[in-house]
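Researcher: Go.
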Amino acid sequence: MSNEKQTIHDFDINIIYEYFSNTERQGPGNTEETLKALNFITGLTKKSKIADIGCGTGGQTMTLGQNTPCEITGIDVWQDFIHKFNQNSINQNLQDRVKGIVGNMENLPFQEEELDLIWSEGSIYNIGFERGLNEWRKFLKIGGYIAITENTWFSEERPDEIQEFWQKIYSEIDTISNKVAQMQKAGYLPIATYMLPETIWTDYYRKQSLNIDTFIKKHKGNKAAEEFASSQRYEAELYNKYKAYYGYMFYIGKRIK
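Model: Structure:
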């Protein structure tokens, strides 16, 4: 396998986490899109509880904290992400309501029907879209919401190069209609489904290009780190070439059973 075609899953997890720990968001997204999705959620009060699963350093979580009165728990498996998450919360004077804890999305520390909203931008793929919807539902109250971004095919047919790339990284990537059907089958009423703008990807990759240069300088001579940086550049090149075929969708659902 050539270096340029290695994917993120071919690298040591510590290299991956170090690379992404220096970014505000660990995946495509921005404040405007988080707020747009939040506008579909009703009934949140000071007594409401939100969990941001796979929160990273909390870019989107801080937006939720600034724009809701709720108690919010961010969960991520990486200690360094959570440390930065909690520092961000303190910096924004949200620490009384917004806290990060180290945890695994496969074993969440909540009681059944404890949560009013589950949020997960760009991270459910770690457990799988369908599995996450099914396993997390029990933590939501009846009438509670789930809001997720998920990489999705925009067409039924794709060029082989991009089909093979994403099939290797995330075999559950699928079309919009199939994702909505999975949400319904898991016991949710689909509330909103919409495509995130192309600019969230182009802005993300633009910021990543700066991070890549810094990362390479820091790890000059480290073959694994250099190959990882190369893989990130390759992913950006693929998006620019094939962005008409895939991208992030926001899926928002309401637990009905």
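Model: The mean pLDDT is 92.
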